[in-house]
Automatic annotation (TrEMBL):
Membrane topology listed for this record: Multi-pass membrane protein
Protein name, UniProt field: SLC13 family permease
Record-annotated membrane-spanning stretches: 6-23, 28-46, 58-76, 97-121, 141-165, 177-197, 400-433, 445-464, 484-517, 529-549, 569-589
Species for this entry: Robertmurraya mangrovi
Domain named RCK C-terminal: residues: 205-290, 298-382
SUPFAM superfamilies per UniProt: TrkA C-terminal domain-like
Keyword annotations from UniProtKB, A to Z: Membrane, Repeat, Transmembrane, Transmembrane helix, Transport
């Protein structure tokens, strides 16, 4: 073992530990690993930055724009309730939801689809007295099923495509993965509509738990003789309270003030709405002229006014807010919205809101201005579950242009008239010159953290290959799987990739496994394509944990799920995808 191999193994090992422990965001961790590999002389500067000009990475960037234009059309959201039917046969409705969602996610980014459909499906379930937990996890799984069907189904597919091109291969065609993706998706949907539906729990969603306002909202009435009248919130001593905080003032004339700042003045007859540990509200009874309204029936709807809306946001896995309290994050000042309550693990956290330390998957109930969604819809810190009554819909002409452009792009790439990259460039130019998208919308839909992760990943992969680390690991893998044959080797590659995907990220898993799969194929003298396809499917088919794939995390809180729910349903799905992939790779593709 050379010094170079030891250095690469050490750097990649530290990178893995940091990814598993979530020390920083994945894109930053992989970028730091890339920088270390260059500083230690393993990579030349030219090789280190190769990923930033790679065709696969640039294609991902362009597809974010195309997908964003189609998603903002609002056409697909209107079809959702029609497709699901009346709900008299829930399993039939589940199939009618999963089939088109899988087809849609084969061509569009999975995350916005789940964010877009979650409130629609919850509303549909509420109107039919069906638990949303029976439909939201299948929604996430349906997008994962679809992502394994086409080249543009996920960024992972395009990452492998780019790595293949970088190594002098042709890369995937548009529907090359469909030979595995379609059979696996069909079996996955059948499983979810039969055994899976039975296993899925019937639980209260975060929306239902937030409705019980008596548990976290209380009201103080400012009496006419109160000495705090005319004073600011700061002067009245209502700013830094133990266990609760003031989220809104409802004036005697019906005017609603939110968010409440230190400088707002108190008036006679004001209703002061607090959230947090309601047991601590009694401390305020000692303040003369403030009366706890024990008969208050304050509802969430009462908090709204013409400029204020209530919405839910799910903390993302890569959020800069995690592991810090809401107060430390200065959430109200930073985002212009007040957190009223936080839902985690099927229950609302009974604590002072400002002291709650946020974790990935937490669902926040936020009172904010109507511009909150437009300003933070593309935030990487959380996923906003837009209110159903206010979708972001572009005009009819732009909607048609966007959908026709997407179809044209797919056909040009599918029939190999243009490469995927050139077809995507043409699509973006058409959308831009027809004004279906703007510079502002481009900024909104391009996910820079994903692009940085992919670009940095290329350099790490080059280091693993050029240093001889990939060959060493391939030799070790072949040695320990000699008695299992080629089918056993493919199975092991799939399993290792799946494990990496569940504990780190799908793109990072591919970075590690691609050079190993390539070196293994070279040493055995077999076609590397089936091995690449096996790890590609394994990296996307992540069902067993809420953290393995971001769409699983989005529905975690809104569906009221527990970690064990993902294991009960996800592990059988992982096994199903393993069997289908290994069978087709070995018996059909090799």
């Amino acid at each position: 073992m050379t010094v170079e191999i030891i250095t690469v193994l050490a750097i990649v090992g530290v990178m893995l530990i940091c990814l598993i422990r979530e020390v920083f965001r994945p894109d930053f961790i992989v970028l730091c690993a890339l920088a270390c590999l260059m500083l230690f002389g393993i990579l030349s500067p030219a090789d280190a930055v190769k990923g930033f000009s790679n065709e696969g990475m640039l294609t991902v960037a362009l597809l974010f724009i195309v997908a964003g234009a189609v998603q903002q059309s609002g056409i697909f959201t209107k079809l959702a309730t029609v497709l699901m039917g009346h709900g008299d046969k829930p399993r039939s409705s589940l199939a009618r939801m999963m089939l088109p969602i899988s087809a849609l996610s084969a061509f569009l980014n999975n995350t916005p689809i789940v964010v877009m459909f979650t409130p629609i499906i919850r509303k549909w379930c509420k109107e039919r007295n069906i638990s949303p937990s029976k439909f939201l996890l299948p929604l996430s799984y349906a997008t994962i099923f679809g992502g394994t069907i086409t080249l543009i189904g996920t960024s992972t597919n395009l990452l492998v495509h780019g790595l293949m091109i970088e190594n002098g291969m042709k890369g995937y065609s548009m529907f090359q993965l469909a030979i595995i993706g379609i059979p696996a998706a069909i079996l996955g949907i059948l499983f979810m509509c039969t055994i899976g539906y039975k296993i899925l729990p019937s639980r209260k969603s975060s929306e239902e738990l937030f409705q019980n306002t008596r548990e976290f909202l209380s009201e103080l009435l400012v009496e006419s003789h109160s000495p705090v009248i005319g004073k600011t919130i700061e002067q009245a001593g209502l700013r830094r309270l133990n266990g609760i905080y003031l989220i809104e003032i409802i004036r005697a004339d019906g005017e609603k003030v939110a968010p409440v700042t230190s400088h707002h003045k108190i008036k006679s007859g004001d209703r002061l709405i607090f959230t947090g540990l309601i047991s601590t509200i009694v401390e305020l009874q000692t303040m003369k002229g403030l009366r706890v309204d024990t008969g208050s029936t304050i509802e969430l709807e009462d908090l709204k006014n013409g400029n204020q809306i209530l919405l839910e946001a799910v903390i993302s896995h890569q959020s800069s807010l995690v592991h810090k309290s809401i107060k430390q994050n200065r959430f109200r000042m930073r985002y212009g919205g007040g957190v009223i309550a936080v839902h985690r693990n099927e229950e609302r956290i009974n604590n002072k809101v400002g002291d709650i330390v946020l974790q990935p998957g937490d669902t926040l109930l936020i009172l904010a201005g109507r511009d909150f969604i437009n300003r933070w819809a593309s935030s990487k810190d959380f996923y906003i579950l837009n209110p159903v009554e206010s979708p972001d819909v572009m005009d009819y002409k732009s909607s048609i242009i966007s959908i026709v452009t997407l179809i044209g792009m797919v056909l040009l790439a599918a029939f190999e008239i243009l490469s995927m990259f050139k077809a995507a460039v043409l699509a973006v130019l058409i959308l831009f010159f027809t004004k279906a998208i703007t510079i502002e919308s481009i900024k909104k839909y391009v996910q820079l953290n994903v692009l940085l992760l992919i670009a940095s990943s290329f350099g790490v992969g080059i280091a693993i290959e050029q240093s001889g680390t990939a060959s060493l690991l391939a030799e070790t893998l072949i040695h320990y799987t000699t008695g299992l044959g080629l089918i056993g080797l493919i199975t092991i590659l799939y399993l290792i990739t799946t494990i990496f995907t569940e504990i780190i990220t799908n793109n990072a898993a591919i970075v590690l496994m691609f050079p190993i799969a390539q070196a293994t194929a070279q040493q055995l003298g077999v076609d590397p394509i089936p091995l690449f396809m096996a790890i590609t499917i394994a990296a996307s088919a992540s069902f067993a944990t809420p953290i393995g794939y971001q769409t699983n995390l989005i529905v975690y809180g809104p569906g009221g799920y527990r970690f064990s729910d993902y294991l009960k349903i996800g592990v059988p799905l992982n096994i199903l995808y393993l069997l289908v992939t290994v069978f087709i790779c070995y018996f059909i593709l090799l």
